[in-house]
Amino acid sequence: MAATTLFLSSLILLILAQAPAQPQAPPPASDACNGIFLSYSYSTGRRVPPILKSDPTRQAYRFESAFSILNNDLQDLKSWRVFVGFQHDEYLVSASNAVLADGNSIPGSVGNGTVFAGFPNPDLKTAIETAGDLTQMSARVELVGTQFGVAPPDAPMPSNISLVNDGWVCPKPTMQGNRTLQVCCTRDPKFKSNVTINEEFLPRQNGDLTIVYDV
User: Fold this and answer.
1) pTM of the model
2) Cα–Cα distance between 3 and 122 in angstroms, integer?
3) What's the pLDDT at 86?
4) According to a count of CB atoms within 10 Å of the terminal CB, is the N or C end of the chain lower?
5) CA distances (Å), origin 190, targets 119, 143, 184
6) What is the SS3 assignment for 47?
7) Would you indicate the residue range of the signal peptide (predicted)?
8) What's phi and psi for 60, nearest 5 deg?
9) Average pLDDT over residues 121-148
10) Which runs of E-coded beta strand occur in the chain?
């Protein structure tokens, strides 16, 4: 009996040793990005009243989604701004950790796309100066709103997501599955800045407001 038990134990160990090892999960796409990594993900949605069976293209649906921005560059990203190309007549109800860069208020219509600016933390530090602390290197913006015409299980994805800070270029984003849009933005080698790293204030950009006070 003991010999039989020993034989079976040895056989099981031999089978386990010859079994193919489970492949490791691939590293996240952000690991391959040595710049600014952007990701937009759709979470969930549902139909909201009124129910328009006669015109499904105008049927309203709640959507919940989020986008994230991660600084994998060697320098801090000051006053980050991200464009999200909404294309389903979206009406934005709430956004965490960001405001609309054009000064418009939330709730409001963003159906033609909009630029978000980081708030209350507009700057993203590097991995080097934070020892890889993602809470200082990245930001996540959770969105809730209403879109029209895209019924679940289809996902109302934006047409584009990109970094609009001066000096950066973003290729066309790629879909990961049906609910995630990703892109890695890198520094524009042709861009010449008129500000040094040690200066406190950023150079003028499109959309800046100049206030003059005269006595």
Assistant:
1) 0.78
2) 70
3) 98
4) C
5) 29, 34, 18
6) strand
7) 1-21
8) -90, 145
9) 97
10) 36-47, 60-71, 81-84, 91-95, 98-100, 108-109, 114-118, 138-148, 161-163, 168-169, 174-176, 180-187
- Burial (Cβ within 10 Å: 0-12, 13-18, ≥19) of residue 54: exposed
**Strand, helix or coil at 4?**
helix
Tell me which residue of 83, 91, 38 sits closest to 63, measured CA to CA: 91
137-177 tens-digit pLDDT: 999 999 999 999 999 999 999 999 999 999 999 999 999 99
Whole-angstrom distance, CA of residue 91 vs CA of residue 98: 16
Those residues whose C-beta lies under 8 Å from the C-beta of residue 64, and which sit 6 or more positions away, are 42, 43, 44, 45, 142, 143, 144
Domains of the chain: 27-187 (2.60.40.290)
Q: Which residues contact 58 (CB under 8 A, 6 or more apart)?
A: 52, 148, 149
Specify which residues 60 forms β-bridges with: 148
